[in-house]
Amino acid sequence: MLNQIKGLHHVTSMAADAQENNDFFTKLLGLRRVKKTVNFDAPDVYHLYYGDHVGTPGSVMTYFPFPHIAKGRRGTGEVSETAFAVPEGALDYWRERLTAAGVGGLQDDTRFGEKRLRFPGPDGDGFALVEVPDDSRAPFGHGPVPADRGVHGFRGVTMRLRDGEATAELLKFMGYQELARDGALIRMGIEGGNGADIVDLEVLPDAERAREGAGSVHHVAFAVADRAAQAEVRRALLDAGAHVTPVIDRDYFWAIYFRTPGGILFEIATNEPGFDRDEDVAHLGEALKLPDQHAHLRPQIEKTLTPITD
Predict the structure, then answer these.
(1) CB atoms within 10 A of CB 73
(2) How far, in Å, CA of 256 to CA of 267, rounded?
(3) Tens of pLDDT, residues 245-283
(4) d(CA 235, CA 268)
(5) 236: part of which helix (H) or strand (E)?
(6) Which of 27, 115, 128, 203 would suit a FRET pair with 298, their CA atoms being 20 to 30 Å apart?
(7) Does the pTM of the predicted model rise above 0.85?
(8) Residue spans of beta strands (DSSP E) within the chain
(9) Which domains does the chain show, CATH number per domain?
């Protein structure tokens, strides 16, 4: 069993409209946009990152907004819900805030003893706010949401699968342990993790498979401290028979990818070097940053991308 992984690093999804996506996360959920860059493989598409003040691993939601992308279809073989941690007693505030903003489909529930408020994103994304007492992570306190009601980071994700056992075994290999079961749900967690350390497996054997599109999670990334830890994880995964990519430089972290038995794309990302490697912390997410291989295309890229109004 590995011990290098400490929880989630980031979750990357797809959207249809960059401005709508930006407004949802910064103006409604109160996260900070910590980076405005482009998709490495499609530089005519933004890659937007939202998180806490510095984009701490375990707090960062990222998006590829593809104009005119078809809406995704919910189903098995995907991350179906991303859950954010909020302070105990904050759900009343959030219910009123989301309702006032016209967000429909709000659902209150309790999962493994935790109070939750579920809601859809602009593209039908599945989200939940979870009351987590004594979460020591600091929310971004300079946006529209008061710090004492703000998002601390991820609580975790839900993966919807036809068969949960193979993915559960993979997560155990990655350092997770089974914490509880309730009907179709299996809760996995990491002891002493980074706070974003819960993965729920929802097993629905007869459900149809998901179809990727706007509102779909593209991949979920798990956090390791540095490249040395990542190399250890990569060797162990290869030895276990996983098909793992070479290490890829993503400017703000180093990444490796592999596909799970349930069809979900996993990434292992380093906590280094961080989002302040090319911007001062006071100005994170303000300027359009381009990977070196696309820097010569800046005039063309700036003409192609629709400007985002903050």
Answers:
(1) 15
(2) 6
(3) 999 999 999 999 999 999 999 999 999 999 999 999 999
(4) 12
(5) helix 227-239
(6) 27
(7) yes
(8) 8-15, 32-38, 46-51, 60-65, 78-86, 107-111, 114-120, 126-131, 153-161, 177-182, 185-189, 198-203, 217-224, 248-249, 253-259, 265-273
(9) 8-65+74-304 (3.10.180.10)
